[in-house]
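Database export, one record per block. Field names are fixed; values are copied verbatim from the stored entry.
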Amino acid sequence: MKTTLRTLLFALLPAAAFAQETTIPVKLGFNAGATYAGIRGNEGAEANDYAIDYLVGLSFEAPLSDNLSLLANLNYERKSFTNTIYIENGDPFDPVVGGGNVDTRLTLQYLTLPVNLKYYIGQSKGFYINGGVYAGYFLGGILKADGNKVDDNSDGLFKKVDFGVNLGIGMRFPIDEKNDLNIELRDNLGLANISDGPTVGNGTIKTNSVNLIVGWQFNL
């Protein structure tokens, strides 16, 4: 990950240098929000229901022109989904595998790096749209059954890297000359097969998440 972050910094340096030549400042910020995520790609994956979780992270924005800028985030993001499965022969003394219907929740934890072009609409720059690509590094999974955490090992089940495209729309609320509040709705469509094991019908497993993000930005 150190190599990835070093590469990102070198990639952003030209944009930051260009921004210093404009009247629009470079912005740093913090963001947090909710995720509504699920998986797709085969019948087994699509039998799961989307679930709500959260993300937190940092943002960097460098202007390319009066209305166009480069936006990058580094987020800790949790993508969760749920299902109800039936266990026919369980252990009646084990609350997790006691048999019958079991409500499960699997959370995939990622360190995600979206890199987008952000376009402000109009002179007031109150509304904006952005879009681009993202890469995610898998940090591990958390499995719960009927609310109880299961000791699970995600090694060999999911690949370490996910990637895809994203598109968002948002509103900017200036607080003062140096601080802004942003509210954005962003859809992330995973393009990579994250499965590292057998799947139903030899299909794929791909992620999809919708983010509701609230961010605070300040001028450098």
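Remark 1: The longest helix spans residues 2-20.
Remark 2: The radius of gyration is 20 Å.
End of record.
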